[in-house]
Prior knowledge:
Structural class: alpha+beta
Largest sheet: 5 strands, mixed
Oligomer: single chain
Number of strands: 10
Helix content: 40-55%
Distance between the termini: 13 Å
Amino acid sequence: xxxxxxxxxxxxxxxxxxxxxxxxxxxxxxxxxxxxxxxxxxxxxxxxxxxxxxxxxxxxxxxxxxxxxxxxxxxxxxxxxxxxxxxxxxxxxxxxxxxxxxxxxxxxxxxxxxxxxxxxxxxxxxxxxxxxxxxxxxxxxxxxxxxxxxxxxxxxxxxxxxxxxxxxxxxxxxxxxxxxxxxxxxxxxxxxxxxxxxxxxxxxxxxxxxxxxxxxxxxxxxxxxxxxxxxxxxxxxxxxxxxxxxxxxxxxxxxxxxxxxxxxxxxxxxxxxxxxxxxxxxxxxxxxxxxxxxxxxxxxxxxxxxxxxxxxxxxxxxxxxxxxxxxxxxxxxxxxxxxxxxxxxxxxxxxxxxxxxxxxxxxxxxxxxxxxxxxxxxxxxxxxxxxxxxxxxxxxxxxxxxxxxxxxxxxxxxxxxxxxxxxxxxxxxxxx
Length: 432
């Protein structure tokens, strides 16, 4: 289960305001996990060089130089030498540079007087604890476990936050709230969200600095832990971790998070219910299905313009990463697939002359490990546009199409991969 993340602001932190966002320099541990820091590094690296053109940014960097543990006397270093030393510190993982975009979503009002509206609803009814109360935790679906954990959260809250959270799990809102957190858990397990997205991280940073970012990752990890709970004690631990994160992030963030999740579900053709992000439903409305070793697989089907879902042998799917499965995702997937076989939405892959290249690498690699013979693959053409939710999150930087996203991902590997990826599985953390 998740260990609660310490949320005190680190001393070794430097925040540099830039047009459109804030550049934050800090040790990787300040972000709550190395995986979290790595996720942001790709979006921040290209923003280092422009610091040379901003005297105020350079002055801020000089004043924080020694606090960040960087070598040399900052008052004697040229701006270019400073950037070179900073890049070296980032490359050696001694320092992370993360860019958090300013919140531009019209739903975001993070002023002190912000009073969020009630969560959108009514949502289509999802699975309920009332319907599952006779079940042992092990027999609950993922969404039922998430709901059970959410219903335990209020006992760890107090005051207005507790009252507001009770509204989010009321009969008219529970389906949407469960859907949002089940989707967050799926992003942790299955990789399509690369943990929390950059836009949400920017909002969390705007609310509480790096403490907010760490709380966001604690929230995501706790949601994932809820789906793998084996007993009531596991659910209670996940609920406490969620409550600790909510205290830092506040009701404004929770309302934004659920509203964005509802919008994203709609973008992918879902209904807004928990089931639309559940264990067996595709984000475009097609069923991913469970695929156990030796089980049958449905035939290919069209699910939208320019895309199909096919069931393929994971050994035939190419990879776009050299390493994957951090933040305990590989271990969580090993446990899930050993117990349930393939149990999630299709992976996203791009068609190339040699076959398909996956952008969801951890699930494919673990499926190979587990000997699963067939997995659902949503195949995109290189010219197909990325969904708006992915553009908003900047998961693949400036990419606009699936082909550009593939090139962005493969070119950032160390060493870089070619545009057709590789059949060699990525390195995964060993089983614990």
